[in-house]
Amino acid sequence: MGTTSVKTSERKSSSAVRRLSHSQIPAEVEDVLASTQFIDIHTHLFSPAFGKIGLWGIDELLTYHYLEAEFFRSSDTAPEEYWKLSKAGRAEAIWQALFVENSPISESTRGIVAVLNAFGLPTDASGLREARRFFASQSVHSHIRKVFQIAGVSSVVMTNDPLDPEERAVWMSGGQNHPQFHPVLRLDRILCGWPDHWPRLASEGYAVDERASGKSVAEVRRFLAYWHKRMAPLYMAVSLADTFQFPDERSITSKLLREAVLPTCREFGLPMSLMIGVRRQVNPRLRLAGDAVGKADLRSIENLCREFPGNRFLVSVLSRENQHELAVYARKFNNLMPFGCWWFLNNPSIVEEITRERIELLGTSFIPQHSDARVLEQVIYKWHNTRRTLAPILAHAYQLLLADGAELTRQKIQRDVNRLFRTNFEKWTGLGAA
Ligand code: FIX
Ligand code: ZN
Questions:
Q1: How far is Cα 165 from Cα 218, in angstroms, rounded to an integer?
Q2: pTM of the model
């Protein structure tokens, strides 16, 4: 090591332990957030091995269901007419209505502008044409590397449904081993759609029946063990309606969760992720954009955390009204990890409120955000926005701490940011463990 690098590292370590003043805190927090690689703990992205299932590029970005919902508010096109259009036709209709005829000031439309800008593309009316040209010239592997680097994420967690025929084909023919994409075993079809999906399990040789009786529970465990081996998921996951109850003697969801899923999670040391509060298809004409939100009864979380101390639960709730309760439950149960500001909550005003509340009640023992990205380049704007919203919140928390008499250094801020955006998740899932 030469003299210069010794001096540089001395300078770095001395700046890491230098006591920060009130006015130095905001810039230091911003810098730590900008230079820390985050783990994106829940997305709907796929590694290149999944081929066309992995979405990227401008037409996919514009036809994101968040934007489709907004399109119908600014266009007279009926949903039925919209669905008849090709993907390119839909993207053009959305571009025209939300970006040319109106200012894209909503969170999701602003995100498109931020992505175009990140690649140095025009954001005026010519943007769509130029963006199509740009994305068509990218090759997926290097594009992924570039996108993750701009977004400041080291890796992302996928959502993998073994009962999805297209996905299954990939898993059965070698699966994937991309180091930046981690699998998750998603169980909605089994836990919430049993009446429609049990025949699929039966056709694969599992002795299950419509009422999930007899050998069904043992067979679902065999199915989960098989997929655990094939997929090596970081956790298991399900999205649940606002009406979810646990326990519920009459519900197959409750039975399979208690008797099959949670024991399997314990056996393999995996956390269970519960995303609660969606009201599916309040407007079916909008398809994926037709889901809404309802306040859930979080006593179900209380019951699960108390009854299954040997399980760990990653929990995100969709209703703003459930957020405070969730943070309070996390104070009672250390097997509960609140995560993310999900879907309709991922707006600066609400992220700000929820994150302040969580810091005040939980310190750094929660996971502030996930992107829920469905289209690759969304991680750029979603993580940029998270950093922008969180910087002043964290800075304010440190300024209060300083005013109350603590000493603050960059090293301490770095430790906390690592915990929030990396190590809370790594510790729970074993990710990165040798
Ligand atoms: O269930 C989920 O994981 C949800 O995040 C999605 O299904 C939802 O459509 C979405 O994309 C929200 O961001
Ligand atoms: Zn999701």
A1: 23
A2: 0.96
